[in-house]
Amino acid sequence: MSKIAVVYWSSTGNTEEMANCVAEGIKSAGGEAELHTPGSFNAQMMDNYDAIAFGCPSMGAEQLEETEFEPMFSACEEKLSGKKIALFGSYGWGDGEWMREWESLCKEKGANMACDFVICCEAPDDAAKDACKKLGESLV
Predict the structure, then answer these.
(1) Exposure pattern of 84-114 as b/e (b: 16+ CB <10 Å)?
(2) pLDDT tens across 42-67, in order?
(3) Which residue of 31, 52, 96, 122 shows the fewest CB atoms closer than 10 Å?
(4) pTM to 2 decimals?
């Protein structure tokens, strides 16, 4: 059974709802999902998982949340090479630039992207929830 971490940061609950859908997809595909926030996850833990889904909303000028998520993720960058990952998050403005830049960074670090990222504007609708479930399935 694949053991997969779903590591996310959420302020309004939108990205948390997406994370729960990712975990649901992992479980429906026969994997084991463990939900983590940045405070309960670190780079040393990456070796404990077959794959990782990272979720963070767009903040400020389309960037990752700077206080908790970005420092944790930066520490994880050294372990991305060869690791199967997927990205997701919500936004309230802009066009997804933060996610495209985040995905490019992951690819530069050698991550094995399991699927295309999933983003949604504000709260996830049914299509976004389904996309998150499929993202989770792709990690198993």
Answers:
(1) bbbbbbbbeeeebebbeebbeebeebebeeb
(2) 999 999 999 999 999 999 888 999 99
(3) 122
(4) 0.97
